[in-house]
Design goal:
Length: 192
């Protein structure tokens, strides 16, 4: 090629050799909310670290326990709630339910259940998944938590209050659907 002189092909030849433009397909949304997996794994690690700090503060008989105990207890309750939500999602997936996964990890609910595209059986199974996860969390906490410590008492109290709040919010729609009522709408339930 000589300087200053471009070698271009005639327009008819370059069009003939041109590759057809292919529209890029939108990426299929993952069936797993990976942002939430990362968020929840991080919170679990932070909770375990808080428990480790609390144990160190107790062993040293430090006043720091008044900070570490409520922190470990509160984080345990948050992780308990997250396990409850994962129980719902796993049961929904196991029954082939249509769900909407959130775009951001900052959203409170792990997913939204699609009331118009799922059956009562799928709703009931999804609901039971959350309850089963809550029962497992409580059983695990009763076995592993040092219940004689301030952190253990705070954690168990907060988790118990969370389970009570969940029962108040989730059991009425569950029993309504079980008796043949319509699937709920609003908050975590979306429609067409």
């Amino acid at each position: 090629m000589m300087l200053g002189v471009s070698q271009t092909k005639p327009a008819s030849q370059s069009k003939a050799n041109a590759q057809p433009k292919v529209k890029s397909q939108p990426k299929a949304k993952s069936m797993v909310p990976w942002k939430h997996v990362a968020r929840d794994a991080g919170l679990l690690a932070l909770t375990l670290f808080a428990w480790q700090l609390d144990g160190t503060a107790r062993a040293a008989e430090s006043a720091l326990e008044w900070v570490t105990a409520p922190t470990a207890g509160a984080l345990t309750a948050i992780v308990g709630y997250l396990f409850h939500e994962w129980g719902h999602l796993l049961a929904a997936r196991a029954t082939g339910s249509v769900v909407r996964l959130p775009d951001r990890a900052s959203e409170v609910f792990l997913f939204n259940f699609h009331s118009d595209r799922n059956s009562a059986r799928q709703f009931l199974a999804m609901s039971l998944g959350g309850y089963a996860a809550s029962i497992l969390v409580i059983a695990l906490l009763l076995v592993v938590l040092p219940l004689d410590t301030l952190a253990g008492k705070i954690a168990l109290t907060l988790v118990g209050l969370g389970v009570l709040a969940t029962a108040i919010l989730e059991l009425p729609p569950f029993f309504a659907v079980l008796r043949g009522g319509p699937l709920p709408r609003g908050t975590a339930y979306v429609g067409d």
